[in-house]
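Wait, can you check?
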Amino acid sequence: MRKRILMLDDNQDILDVVKEALSYERFEVTIASESENIMENISNYKPDLLMLDYKMAGLRGDDICRQVKAHPTLNNIPVIICSAYLNKDDILTCGCDAIITKPFGLDELIETVNGLLLVDQRLETGD
């Protein structure tokens, strides 16, 4: 079964490139450009991994990450925060599992996604 990724970013160009790259790697990718109703979208889509832009209009990625990590049925979803913001210590306080600094290369993106999903898969199988 293909792993499902939900990406939220207010930059359509980034969404398009990331969706193309991750789809090529055989992930099922859904993209969103607005944070409105994002928790409902996450609950309905049930992604295996979330990618969130740190700074957006409306809810920021770190706020959404905190909500996900505090949610009783969503808290096990790995979260990647994508940001041009340079203070990683501030971002890590939201409980995210990884940070990708913008601009990022596709190799770094794929390596980070695969790393988190592989860890997640190992936990499911007990390896």
